[in-house]
Structure formats: structure tokens, C-alpha cells
Specification:
The complex is a heterodimer of chains A (591) and B (112). Chain A is built from 16 helices and 21 strands. Chain A has 591 residues and is of the alpha+beta class. In chain A, strands 6, 7, 8, 9, 10 and 11 form a six-stranded mixed β-sheet that branches. A five-stranded antiparallel β-sheet of chain A has the order 1-2-5-4-14. In chain A, helix 4 packs antiparallel against helix 9, helix 7 crosses helix 8 and helix 13 packs across helix 14. Chain A starts with a helix and ends in a 50-residue tail after the last helix. Chain B has a six-stranded mixed β-sheet, with no helix packed on it. In chain B, strands 1-2-3 form a three-stranded antiparallel β-sheet, with no helix packed on it. Chain B contains no helices and nine strands. Chain B is an all-beta fold and 112 residues long. The chains are: A alpha+beta (591), B mainly beta (112). Chains A and B meet through helix 3 and strand 19 of A and strand 3 and strand 5 of B.
Chain lengths: 591, 112
């Protein structure tokens, strides 16, 4: 029997939600019938609006989908203006101020504290600038990810940007694919470094060569069924299919139609295609795709380039495009480190101006929550690098700053168990000031996810942190499970969960002790990932102890029990929500 | 009126009559349970796997982990609240700090 969510979707879903959303926006928050809240909030996701957690009723997170992370000239300024005007909450964040933009691990943008009454104006401004929120959340084709410097990269074999654009155009607002059993995440990469992260997507296009009619051609191998959520991580698996770029969208249509027809609509926990892959295996997946969903003969897989994948591979890697890199056209792209992916709105605005002044105005978002300014002319490069803003968002950051990723956490998210972004900022700063990295270690990834949904992709980090609780001196405190040795590359590896329920204030001490052991015991030139891989569970557990240090964690209490963790008066009862379009509290109706 | 109960957002919370009433991330004490060998399990609620009704109780199967011993499990049905007034649908959640006793009896929120 279909789930409740499926029933709501069968009544109204996809593009048609918009007219209702606009009506509610016109009439105000109160106009959404109370007994239809859950149905509408589920549907609004399709238009990129996600109702914030308990205590923040009437406020939404808005996700803007930027395919392949590309923000065309002028678009960053628009995003900054929208954030400045509409994404201000009742209380400032102590690290990031009153308004800020989040760059996500899927190369999208998230704004918070959005009021439904402001949605029409925001949509109008976004759409006038070729931006949008359609299908940024919900059960459909999500934002397409890929190598963020597609078309501007010396490691590239195929320019995947036109393919990503074609997929975006064909599957956004397409009624045939607007209602899938669950989210559908797609990665397209044309470079030989593996930075599209295809291994953790539902559908992945990876560069490959294939001999067709005696001639070697460039195209994509297809992989299916990757994903990290719900303690059920899977790497995508080859279905032994190669397509030329001109057939990429047809394969996408076929695979997502297969998912639409065969995905599990009776159990949302079992709905992602990774579970269908578990059940069928890649041979049957290919067979059904061929027989029922494409009208051309599928080619077998070509010669892939996975052997040369360096991205997040644990060794000599390029560090997620952070730094100064020459483009094939002689200009440069400059990747800037954004700690935990969040930038205050004034900084976003200033960066938009700098991108315009020194480059083409284009910027790109990466899957490691960073931002790249492209097309910087060589004779202005040094001047750009001297800009004061780049002291904060450095092209040459300390490894602990560059390696930090964090999800949204209990600040706004219903799912999260613990506070994340502000905590990870404090971790990174403390580690930078107190812990020496062993010789030669220039990339070290620490990913903090508040729950098992894994939005910070913890399982593919050197150190994986996942939200938990424990008791300390009898009192419940926020804690983290710690995993080690995850990463991508030719042979991707999920982290091994080694230390469980470590109080959050003892995690930096654990990392300090762990890295000291690594330095003492590593073989010469051995990477951290290799060091972890050669040890069994018992040996890994013996590597280090968690302990308190002078690191201070202000978020040890149950941040989920507050209406907003950084408010001075943070009890649920002190929340101003729900509010009206002016941000004034709406008094509860008399019984 | 009928009482509308469901879990949403990947089981992050239980909605009763379209109002978020029970959230993940709290520690619940469980007695007479089959989660682990601890006499009282100190159970972190990570997700609501199913919700059901055993009138007038609202129940849930809860996914999570005993933080005392580390065992991961999905509980049997636990009462998470009660519909006090069937006419108005008024609901009262249990005190999550109390000791909960999982039970095998239940009726699904939606008919099978």
C-alpha cells in the first residue's frame, strides 16, 4: 500500500504545487490549513522549500539548485541580495551574523529563515536571473553535480558542462519524471580525477573511451545505486553500459523511468535505487533498462579512467580545486576555502564584486562546500590574490580548514541529533592552533554530519564524525561516533566506525592523540588511509583515547530542545515562531 | 474527529493532527525491552520506523541505539502519547524522561 507521502503526491505534485504555494504566500502563513500542514510542507520541497525544525514554525530553508555548481556572471550578486533581504532570522548566528549563504555538498545554495510571504518576490528575482529552486528538494531529479571546473579544466577529456546543462533542461519541470519514488541524484564528470563523486550518486556518468566502428570515442560509463544515507552506504556499481555524450540524456530518461516504475513506493526507507540494485544486481538492472526503457542497443562499458582518480583518494591529490590553477585558455581559476561552506552575506556580496572585477563574474561551487572564481586574467592574478577577503577565504588554507565539511545540524534541521556547523568551525580552529599534521600530509578531511542522513558525506572522510548522544557525569550530552579511513579514488572505501559516542568536547583531543600515533607508527610515506586500511578493528580502537583538552564546546547541552541554539533565551517557549510576513509572532488561536 | 498520525522527514518526527509532537535526538529509558541486555536501556532515538494506534494510545517503533552498551535496534511498539479527547483530537505526549515499556500489541495507523 502506498505511503501517506505517496498519497499526497498522487493528489498534487510537481509543477502544479506552485499555484497553491503562491496562493498561500499571497494570503499569508495562516492560510495554510492546519490539518494540511504536513501534506503541503512535503509538497513544497519540490519547489525547494523545506520547513525548518520544531520551534521555527513558519520559517523555511530555501535551496537554489545550481547545476554543476555554476553561477553565471551576475548570479552570485543576486543570491547575496536575496539572502540579505529575505534570509534574516529573529536571532543572529554568533559565527556568521544575521544573514548568510550555505554552499552545499551537492553544489547548491541554502538560505534559511525564509518566510512564505516572501516567496513570490524571491522566485521573481531568481527567475529573472535564470536561477531557480525547482526540484531542489523532493522526489525527483535533484541538482546535477559534477567536476566544478568542467569546461575549464586541464584534466578534462569531455566537457561535461553541456551534458549537465542538457540534463538540467530536460528533466526540470518534466512531468514524466516529476514524481519519482524518492530523490534522484545524478553526477556527470568528464575529467580523469574523479571529482564528480559519481560513486555516491544514484546515477553516475564517468568518462570512458570505447571503440566504435574501429574508432576510439569518448563518452561515459554508467554506474547506478550509490548513496550514503541511513547507515546503508553503497557505492554505485557499473551496469556495463557506455554512452556517447549525445545519448547521455536518453540513458538518464531510461534509468529514471525504470526507477519511477520499479522503485518502492510502499516504504520510503527502502525507496532509493540502491536498494533495487541490492535486489536485482547490475546484470538485471541493465537487462530491464534495455528491454523496457531505451529504444536503442546499449553498448557495453568502455575503458574507464578510474586508475587516475586522485580526488579524495588519500594520496597526492588536488584538494578539491582549492588554490590557483591555470585553465586551458591561459586564464586562471582560484578555488577559495569556505569553512563549513557558510559565508556571511556581506562577504558573498564582496566576492561577487571581485569575481566581476578580476574574472568573468562567474563563480562555481564545489562538492566540498568551497567556491571557485573562474576566468581570472593572468596579469591580474597577483592583485586578486592580495585582496583582503582572501585572507578569510584562502586559496592556500591550513589543511584542517580546507578539509572541514559540516551539514546544517540542529540549528535548523529536524533530522539532526547534534549541533554541527559552529562546532566544526571551533574544531577546525582549535586543531589548526594546537595539532601538528605529520610531514607531507597536506589534505586531511574531517566531515561532521548531524545524523545518519549523511549530508556531510562522513563515510568518505579521513575522519568521519556522526551525531550521537551520551552521558557525561550522568547528564545527557552531545556526542559523536568517529569513523576512520574513508575516501574515494579508484577503489573507494567507507570509513570504519572505530570510536562510538565520544562526548563532543573530547573529540579534538582524540584527533590530536590519533595523529600523534599516526606520526609515530606510520611507515615512511604512508598515507593516513593506508595506515587505517592495514589495521584490524582492535588495532584501530587502540590507536587513541578521547580526552578533554582546553577546547571548549558551548553546545554540549541538547541543542535540539532549544528553539534556536544560539538565542539568549533558547527555551522552546521563548520562540517567536510562527510569525507573520513581517516577522511578528502570531498569537495562538483561542480554543 | 479521527486522529491523523504519521512519521515524516525520514522518520525524524511524529506528527499528530499535523503538528510535530515527538522528535528524534532524545534519550529514552526502556524497561522490559528486547533491545539489548541492559536492564534499563538508555536509548537514543534516531528515527521513527513506524507509527501506529492502539486506541487511545499512539505508538511507535523506534530506531536507535542503547548508549550504555552500543546495541543498535528497532524497538517494539512504544506508547508515545495519548489522544485525550477523541472529539477534538487533543493529544498529550508522554514525558520522554519517564521509563518506557515496549509492547508487541498494536494497530497500524493506516490499515494494511
Amino acid at each position: 500500500m502506498p505511503t501517506k507521502v505517496e498519497n499526497w503526491k498522487s493528489e498534487i505534485y510537481g509543477s502544479e504545487i506552485r499555484e497553491h504555494l503562491m496562493e498561500f504566500a499571497e494570503e499569508g502563513w495562516d492560510a495554510i490549513p492546519e490539518d494540511e500542514h504536513d501534506a503541503w510542507f512535503e509538497r513544497f520541497k519540490w519547489w525547494g522549500l523545506y520547513h525548518q525544525r520544531k520551534g521555527q514554525e513558519s520559517y523555511f530553508m530555501m535551496r537554489i539548485g545550481t547545476p554543476n555548481g555554476v553561477l553565471k556572471p551576475g548570479q552570485l550578486e543576486v543570491v547575496a541580495e536575496i539572502a540579505d533581504e529575505y534570509a534574516r532570522g529573529p536571532v543572529d548566528n554568533p559565527e556568521f551574523g544575521g544573514a548568510y549563504c550555505d554552499w552545499t555538498t551537492r553544489q547548491s545554495i541554502q538560505l534559511h529563515w525564509i518566510k512564505i510571504e516572501d516567496v513570490p518576490e524571491i522566485f521573481e528575482k531568481l527567475e529573472a536571473n535564470d536561477l531557480g529552486t525547482q526540484q531542489a528538494c523532493g522526489d525527483s531529479w535533484r541538482n546535477i553535480v559534477g567536476c566544478p571546473v568542467a569546461g575549464k579544466d586541464k584534466h578534462e577529456h569531455i566537457d561535461a558542462w553541456p551534458v549537465a546543462e542538457e540534463l538540467h533542461e530536460r528533466f526540470k519541470g518534466n512531468d514524466d519524471f516529476s514524481n519519482l519514488p524518492r530523490k534522484w541524484k545524478v553526477a556527470v564528470t568528464g575529467c580523469d580525477q574523479g571529482c564528480g563523486q559519481g560513486d555516491i550518486n544514484d546515477l553516475a556518468y564517468e568518462p570512458a573511451t570505447k571503440e566504435i566502428d574501429g574508432e576510439e570515442q569518448l563518452g561515459f560509463n554508467i554506474r547506478v545505486g550509490g548513496g550514503l544515507s541511513r547507515k546503508e552506504p553503497r557505492f554505485s556499481r557499473s551496469i556495463d553500459v557506455w554512452v556517447p555524450p549525445e545519448q547521455a540524456a536518453d540513458i538518464g530518461a531510461g534509468m529514471s523511468a525504470l526507477f519511477r516504475e520499479y522503485g518502492d513506493r510502499e516504504d520510503r526507507f527502502n525507496a532509493r535505487i540502491k536498494f533495487l540494485m541490492d535486489e536485482w544486481g547490475p546484470e538485471k538492472m541493465r537487462e530491464v533498462l534495455q528491454e523496457e526503457f531505451v529504444d536503442f542497443e546499449l553498448e557495453t562499458a568502455g575503458e574507464n579512467m578510474r586508475e587516475s582518480y586522485t580526488y579524495n583518494a588519500g594520496g597526492e591529490e588536488h584538494g578539491d580545486h582549492v588554490g590557483v590553477h591555470e585553465q586551458p585558455d591561459g586564464n586562471y581559476y582560484v578555488g577559495l576555502d569556505v569553512l563549513v561552506g557558510r559565508m556571511g552575506v556581506d562577504d558573498v556580496s564582496e566576492l561577487a564584486e571581485l569575481a566581476d572585477e578580476y574574472g568573468s563574474g562567474e563563480v562555481r561551487l564545489t562538492q566540498r562546500q568551497n567556491i571557485i572564481v573562474t576566468d581570472v586574467e593572468s596579469d591580474r592574478l597577483d592583485e586578486f590574490l592580495d585582496e583582503p577577503l582572501l585572507e578569510t577565504y584562502s586559496p592556500d588554507p591550513h589543511p584542517f580548514m580546507r578539509g572541514s565539511i559540516a551539514c546544517t545540524g540542529t540549528e535548523f534541521c529536524s533530522l539532526s541529533i547534534v549541533e554541527t556547523k559552529n562546532r566544526q568551525v571551533r574544531y577546525a580552529r582549535w586543531l589548526k592552533d594546537n595539532v601538528e599534521l605529520p610531514d607531507g600530509v597536506e589534505d586531511f578531511h574531517i566531515h561532521l554530519s548531524g545524523c545518519t542522513a549523511s549530508c556531510a558525506q562522513p563515510q568518505i572522510a579521513d575522519i568521519s564524525l556522526r551525531g550521537m548522544k551520551t552521558r557525561k557525569d550522568g547528564e545527557p550530552v552531545e556526542a559523536l561516533d568517529i569513523g576512520l579511513g574513508g575516501g574515494l579514488g579508484e577503489n573507494p572505501q567507507f570509513a570504519d566506525w572505530v570510536e562510538m559516542r565520544v562526548p563532543a568536547d573530547e573529540v579534538p583531543g582524540y584527533i590530536e592523540n590519533l595523529l600523534a600515533t599516526f606520526e609515530d607508527e606510520r611507515a615512511e610515506g604512508q598515507t593516513f588511509r593506508e595506515f587505517v586500511a592495514e589495521r584490524d578493528e582492535e588495532e584501530l580502537q587502540a590507536l587513541a583515547e578521547a580526552e578533554e583538552t582546553d577546547y571548549e564546546d558551548p553546545y554540549m547541552h541538547n541543542t535540539k530542545m532549544t528553539w534556536y541554539p544560539y538565542a539568549e533565551e533558547d527555551d522552546m517557549g521563548d520562540s517567536p515562531a510562527p510569525t507573520n510576513g513581517d516577522g511578528d509572532p502570531i498569537a495562538p488561536a483561542d480554543d | 474527529m479521527t486522529t491523523d498520525v504519521h512519521q515524516l522527514d525520514d522518520g525524524a518526527w511524529i506528527s499528530v493532527n499535523d503538528e510535530r509532537r515527538i522528535n528524534v535526538s532524545d534519550l529514552w529509558l526502556l524497561a522490559r525491552h528486547e533491545v539489548c541486555d541492559c536492564e534499563i536501556a538508555d536509548f537514543l532515538v534516531e528515527g521513527f520506523a513506524e507509527v501506529g494506534v492502539d486506541h487511545p494510545d499512539i505508538q511507535a517503533k523506534v530506531a536507535g541505539r542503547c548508549i550504555a552498551c552500543g546495541t543498535e535496534a528497532v524497538t517494539d511498539w512504544i506508547t508515545v502519547g495519548r489522544v485525550i479527547d477523541p472529539e477534538s483530537g487533543e493529544f498529550s505526549a508522554v514525558d520522554v524522561a519517564s521509563v518506557h515499556v515496549p509492547d508487541k500489541r498494536h494497530r497500524l495507523a493506516r490499515p494494511e
